[in-house]
Design goal:
alpha/beta; Rossmann fold; 16 strands
């Protein structure tokens, strides 16, 4: 396997949705299907939403928005709206690499029956086997059928995938079950531009001055989706002043990064970040170098040259050359050059955070990359690059930590990269936010898979959190239902009130769950053990090594 292909697998910070790890509604587990079967199953969901011109539609399933009236479909007691555009013009043709545009008033009536196409990406996970197109900036809404007595809190979900993979069509991200159980919230999922089409620095090229936003378009798309929600969600019964951003992996990186964007706080007041943080980004010099490498390989000199290329050809080239390098840029324009300094300076202190990590994040990649040999081969190179950036004293601390890890030869890689990419940044985010006067509810998820070597890997919490026990490709088994329901109830309570604690009368097991805020003295986190959800001091779990791995946060996660 080529080195780049190893990186490709390592790059899928997408949660539990790789081919070896999930399934589709009504079909076999994906680990039992080849690519052609997966494509056939996923594409069976496809349809094209059309304008309704004859007035023949169910008014009880229709919602009038700024850019049209959209007609959903009823599933049990939930109305689902799929494929609603949240921009005025899709980023195709001359609008490739341009900022997303606002919607325009529209009096038409449109079907909202089918998910829009996925953003262009390599074929490697569920959403990528759906139809793909640059015409991809759409969102989906799940709302309870019963008209609300009062406005409901809103959760906007941003999917993961290393900023280069994934989409909203993934059955794991279908929130029907979640809303059926919790009809006191409305859930929205939004797609965004990925990879080379969403995160490519172009402004330094001869004609690049016309593309000043290209390096962070995926985040700008997400921000535009937030704006659409703010302006239209009341028509669905939602409260535009009570919106929670939620994402996992690159989605967690997205929602924490969006909180650092100036002016964004008018659209949301809470963030749920699962295994994601602002470390999942690169500096401008690295972004420029990545673009230059791509241009040389393609024989291109200008953006105009790139514009002539087919999207899939661009994606293929970037996948081979730039794995983990088409990600948000700390450009000092949309995102701060130093996210940690911004958080410490109070940039997000008015946003309440619920954030955390899984106990064995990197074990997911160990398994999905095919086992220890390819995993070690890939990450040995990454370790060497990181060590080259460090002082001699820091290198000694890193090697001390590395040598103290017990077990098989892959264990130090799993532990150290879990620290660098996930655990240490999560704790630092809680530290800086708290120090600045903000609020962070921090968690540590520990439930283990039944699969060999997976342990409590990346994405392990998603199937129980979204009420999809059938997607057991990573977990190897359904988790305890009372535990899973309790976790969902706490997430909903946070979306409703800004505090995930639940009283005994609403707790699925009849016992109150008091989730303390993270503080600088006790540093308490909520531990999600399968049969014992409880708070602990961070020192009891040692989520990070304060002397030997916390320092990794200044070198960021790639």
């Amino acid at each position: 396997m080529k080195k780049s292909k190893l990186w490709l697998l390592a790059a899928i910070l997408a949660c539990a949705t790789t081919l070896v790890a999930t399934g589709c509604t009504g079909c076999n587990s994906a680990k039992e299907m080849d690519a052609s079967e997966m494509k056939e199953k996923v594409r069976a969901f496809y349809g094209e939403n059309k304008e309704i011109t004859d007035g023949n539609y169910d008014r009880s399933l229709a919602v009038k928005c700024i850019n049209g009236t959209f007609v959903g479909r009823l599933a049990d007691s939930t109305i689902v709206f799929r494929g609603i555009p949240y921009v005025g013009k899709q980023p195709v043709g001359e609008l490739r690499w341009k900022a997303p545009t606002d919607v325009v008033p529209d009096s038409g009536v449109y079907e909202a029956y089918y998910n829009a196409k996925s953003a262009p990406q390599p074929e490697i996970e569920v959403s990528s086997y759906y139809y793909q197109d640059e015409n991809c900036l759409y969102l989906n809404v799940w709302k309870p059928l019963k008209a609300p007595a009062e406005k409901k809190p809103v959760i906007l979900w941003i999917h993961g995938g290393a900023y280069a993979y994934g989409g909203t069509v993934d059955p794991l991200y279908d929130f029907h079950n979640f809303v059926e159980e919790n009809p006191d919230v409305i859930v929205v999922s939004a797609a965004y531009r990925l990879g080379v089409l969403g995160f490519l620095h172009l402004s330094h090229l001869p004609d690049g001055k016309d593309y000043p936003d290209a390096q962070n378009l995926g985040l700008m798309d997400q921000l535009k989706a937030l704006k659409w929600v703010h302006e239209n969600i009341a028509a669905f019964g939602g409260d535009p002043d009570n919106v929670t951003l939620m994402g996992e992996s690159a989605g967690g990186g997205s929602v924490t990064s969006l909180s650092l964007v100036e002016g964004s706080h008018q659209y949301f007041n809470k963030v749920i970040a699962l295994s994601g943080n602002p470390c999942l980004s690169i500096p401008t010099e690295a972004a420029v170098a990545a673009t230059n490498e791509l241009m040389e390989a393609l024989g291109c000199k200008t953006v105009a040259d790139l514009q002539k290329m087919d999207a899939q050809d661009l994606v293929a080239a970037a996948t081979e050359l730039l794995p983990l390098r088409t990600v948000p840029e700390r450009d000092g324009r949309l995102l701060p050059k130093d996210p940690w300094a911004a958080v410490a300076g109070g940039a997000v202190k008015d946003i309440t955070f619920l954030q955390g990590v899984n106990k064995d994040e990197m074990n997911f990649f160990l398994v999905t990359m095919g086992g220890p040999e390819p995993f070690i081969k890939c990450f040995a190179e990454s370790k060497a690059k990181k060590l080259a950036q460090m002082t001699d004293e820091e290198k000694a601390l890193v090697e001390s930590y590395w040598n103290d890890v017990k077990g098989e030869d892959y264990e130090p890689y799993c532990k150290w990269f879990s620290q660098m990419i996930f655990c240490a940044p999560c704790i630092r985010m809680s530290e800086e936010q708290t120090r600045a006067g903000g609020k962070s509810f921090t968690y540590y998820f520990t439930v283990e898979s039944a699969l060999p070597m997976m342990k409590c890997g990346h994405g392990m919490a998603l199937a129980p959190l979204f009420k999809h026990p059938e997607f057991d490709g990573d977990t190897g088994r359904p988790f305890d239902e009372t535990f899973s329901k309790t976790m969902r109830k706490m997430w909903v309570q946070f979306a409703k009130t800004g505090n995930p604690s639940i009283s005994a009368d609403i707790s699925p097991d009849g016992k109150a769950k008091d989730w303390p805020l993270y503080d600088l003295k006790d540093k308490k986190v909520m531990v999600f053990d399968e049969f014992n959800i409880h708070p602990e001091k961070e020192a009891q779990r040692k989520i990070t090594d304060w002397n030997r791995t916390y320092l990794l946060t200044k070198y960021y996660g790639f």
